Amino acid sequence: MRGIENLLKESIAQVCAVDVSALTPGSRLADIGVDSLASAEVLVDLEIRLGQQLPAGTLRNLEHAHTLADLTAMLEAAFAVKPRASP
């Protein structure tokens, strides 16, 4: 299975019409067009791609995510996916 970060990048690129190669862990969500509506679309897309439903309240908790890395960490925890190893 591909990692959450890669799936997240692909989904954000599609929903926000940005180049996936421009997305880095430090990308600020507001700067790449991830607003509340885009967040909901990205979450639904991830649920479909992974075949898993996110726990209730996940969307509400996204207000605390400011970067792609923040969002990745939150979603890894929500999907109970083992976090990627640090380099």
Question: Beta-sheet strand percentage?
Answer: under 5%
How many separate domains? 1
Count the DSSP helices: 4
Shape: globular
- Count of strand segments: 0
Describe the structure.
The chain has 87 residues and is mostly helical. The protein has a single domain (4-78), classed as Non-ribosomal Peptide Synthetase Peptidyl Carrier Protein, Chain A. Helix content is 49%, strand content 0%. The chain contains four helices and no strands.
Features:
mainly alpha; 0% strand
In short:
The chain is an all-alpha fold. Helix content is 49%, strand content 0%. The chain has 4 helices and no strands.
Blueprint (SSEs and pairs):
Blueprint: H1 4-16, H2 36-50, H3 58-61, H4 68-78
Helix pairs in contact: 1-2, 1-4
